[in-house]
Amino acid sequence: TFIKMNIWISAFIISIVFGTLSIILFQKIAEKYLSKNEALKTTLFYFLFPPVFIFLTACYTEPIFLFFSLLSWYFHLSKNKFKSALSMMAATMSRPNGILTIIPITYDYLVKRKLKSLIYVVPSILILFCWGLYSYKSTGDPFMLLSARLYWKTDKIQAIKTAFLQLLQGKTSLFFMLQEYFYIGLIGLFFIGLTLFLSYRVWKINRALGLYGFISILAIICFGFSTSYVSFPRLISFIFPIGLGLNFKNSFFTIMILISFLILDYAAWLFFLTTSFFH
């Protein structure tokens, strides 16, 4: 009864359950491409990656999104097309960018010339279309999925964008507005560079997953970075293939990454609890 009455406790339990299942699924997928020890190390690194470490237990939709994204690829590898299609649909319903889970599976079908199997990605597209239609009927806005981003376009963010555009034009009159947010922009650029690098490493392991990583990063930059730049590390870190790129063979480098992640996890939780960082 207490759990039913307390929305935050319920959300926390859901996050824990889906987060734990995501760890198990990621390990199983990693073992398809790496040795068991390498897969275990990669799983440890990915789930200690600060944004993943935080939001796997926070009351956000990320654990659900990650679980169904992983599940869609797991069932695809298991050649269970129907369950893979259901998982893609669930990922799409959990977050709009869940529709991008069709990319690696579509690529795989095209490369293997299984054109008839493309029918299994159609339901996810229809789900997104139906959600857009429902949003239109509810709000009268045919582009509600994109217009919802305007919620994050506060006066402060608009001023920062204006200052940045003026800076690109060689005007420095509003540069002082950017100085306060310089570290956030720097973190955003770091995450772009890091995830592109990891996606490239994944591309060499599996091109379908590498393509999913590249397109997802581009989509998040185009549709998410300018309107909710502080959420950028959170959004981009739950592209699960990047975790496969965290496999490093050098022992010293591996230990240094582990220590760094533990320190960053502490700092990230501190920022998460005391500031708007990562929100």
Notes on the structure:
It is a single chain. It is built from 15 helices and no strands. The protein has 279 residues and is mainly alpha-helical. It has one domain.
Number of domains: 1
Distance from first to last alpha carbon: 30 Å
Order of helices and strands: HHHHHHHHHHHHHHH
Low-confidence parts: none
Q: Percent of residues in beta strands? A: under 5%
Structural class: mainly alpha
Supply the number of helical segments: 15
Count the strands?
0
Helical coverage, percent range: over 70%
Radius of gyration: 20 Å
Shape: globular
What does the average pLDDT come to? 83
Helices and strands, with pairings:
Layout (H helix, E strand, L loop, with lengths): L1 H4 L1 H24 L5 H13 L1 H6 L6 H16 L3 H14 L7 H10 L10 H18 L4 H4 L7 H14 L6 H5 L2 H24 L1 H19 L6 H6 L13 H24 L5
Helix pairs in contact: 2-3, 2-5, 5-6, 6-8, 7-13, 12-13
Supply database-style keywords.
15 helices, mainly alpha, 279 residues, 72% helix
Summarize the entry for a quick read.
The chain has one domain. The chain is 72% helix and 0% strand.
